[in-house]
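Running co-folding for protoporphyrin IX containing FE.
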Amino acid sequence: MFLKTHDDVFASRPKLQVLKSIYNGKKGIAFTGYGQYWRSVRKLCSQQLFTVSKIESFAPSRKDVLTHFIESLKKAATRKEVVNISKMVGNLIEKMTLKMILGPVERYEEFKLQELIEELTNLVGVFNLADFVPFFGAFDLQGLKARTRTLGEKLDKALEMIINDHQQQKQDDFIGTMLTELNKQMNPNGDIMDRYSIKAITIDMFVASLDTSSTTLEWALSALIRHPRVMLKLESELESIIGKRMVEENDLPKLEYLDMVVRETLRLYPVAPMLIPRESMKDIIIDGCYISKKSRVIVNVFAIGRDPNVWSNNVEEFFPERFINSNIELHGHDFELIPFGSGRRVCMPREEVRVNHS
Ligand code: HEM
């Protein structure tokens, strides 16, 4: 109801205290309130970053990283070594994603970006009293201010160096592309794409992309390990359609069972089980309930995905076949399955790449 009928009212985001000092007063995209600035940044991202050609241009680098990942798994298996699959999957996604966002990630090892991003994700996810009772902010009862300040300084130092690097040597990654817009006016309001905006958008990309992708992959792997029947069926699809070679990205539309496994994973284990909080932009009455402007709305996608009235009585079971002949997709239009959100604030790569493809 909130997203389907009243998305226009609930398309804003509440301000998160922790991000205030990390952003240095600027705004990014995922955690920024609805308005001209957000619209311009979203437009820029959709027209220049999440285009099919841009995403495809990173395919060779994704393949390189994946090949390396598989080789190291094979080696470990031959030596009968125990591996920490969560850590390996985390590294895999991080390498793929950071290459796309900031390019030659090995050059920035000294900044320990992995640790910074982990701390950032933890801070954004933490329940912060000051977000609900701003009065408590001054006392910093949870010690978040100090952590945020330290993290903000470290991130800023790293991003300054990365941006300088990109200014000296033109690159095609997200930061390089955003720099082509540096100091240009984005809209009639006079918003400018300056260094601070680029840093804030990059920080949002870190938070929005890394943990979400690696956790989804981890859930999918663990569901397959716990359901050998599904694993065997998936293997036989791969053998009959792909054979012995490695799966390429353009094979994906042919792999119907894999697609069902992905949908089933995201139904049972949505990595953003409450989406990213929304905030109402005006007073509204829904189903007789008065909701005042600036109310925070949390959508329980986890509960929707496990609602027996929607998914029948085997709702808790990992059963990809439920999607046979089903037209329930992940695009955000089928409200029984919205792990990427919906409407104006739907996850960006999901929406843009789909729209550009069709
Ligand atoms: C499995 C992977 C992912 C999942 C499950 C996921 C999920 C989500 C969700 C639930 C939202 C909030 C939607 C809403 O409020 O309605 C969101 C927003 C967003 N996501 Fe993703 N996401 C994923 C991957 C990514 C990646 C790889 C990127 C970028 C490289 C990304 C960038 C964004 C951005 C920029 C937003 C904010 C959109 C806005 O507020 O206007 N996401 N995502």
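Result summary
The first strand starts at residue 278 and ends at 279.
The radius of gyration is 21 Å.
Job closed.
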